[in-house]
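<goal> How does this chain fold?
<sample>
Here is the protein in question

***
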Amino acid sequence: MKNNEDNGLPDVRPPNHPWKPIEQKSPNLATICFYYGDAKSLIVPIRDVSNRRDAKRDPNLETETYGLFSVCCEKERKAIVEQGITTQFFCTSRADATRVLSGYYKPAWYCQFGPGDYAIAAEKIRFVSPGFELEKIVNFLNGFRVDEYVKVRTPWRYIRDNYCFF
């Protein structure tokens, strides 16, 4: 990517202004967030940006941000900033409806848009294909029953446990 300063424009990418560091307060607290997978993607669990009713722009792998291009999961983004949550897991479904854990972010910076409304930028991300089937990853989270935990149909949830993940 070409440096914006060459064009006389300020560099607004993290960690530059307007981004601020997230104070890491909760090392054993994570969020797990679901995003719509593209039904045309048979194996690779990618986000559904072509859904006309609800195009998913997050997680935005291109910019390593969350909430910069959409308004969903405002409470999750607020929790990450205000509670200093260190890990954000992402899940989706493959075309065959298999639910998978597809990746994670390590949140490091935030940009505030309004009271309690934040965008998150990650210092590290990792996504895998075809993703880990939720019902088969119990050992990845030290016996924490992720497959049972994520049966609740909400856009995001907390994980309170020690975890070890790819």
